[in-house]
Amino acid sequence: MSSSRITDEQINDLLTKLQAVLPEAHLRSTDRVSAAKVLQDTCNYIRSLHREVDDLSERLSELLANNDINSAQAAIIRSLLR
Amino acid sequence: MEPKSCSGDGNPSRNLHPSKPLMAANFLRCLSRIQQTATNSSVGSRSRRIRRAAYASMAYSAGHRRAWSWALLRKLRCRRVRPVILPRRPRIARPQVVIEIDRAEVLRKLVPGGTGMDYCRLLEETADYIRCLATQVRLMQTVTDSISS
Question: Domain residues of chain A, as ranges?
Answer without folding.
Answer: 8-81
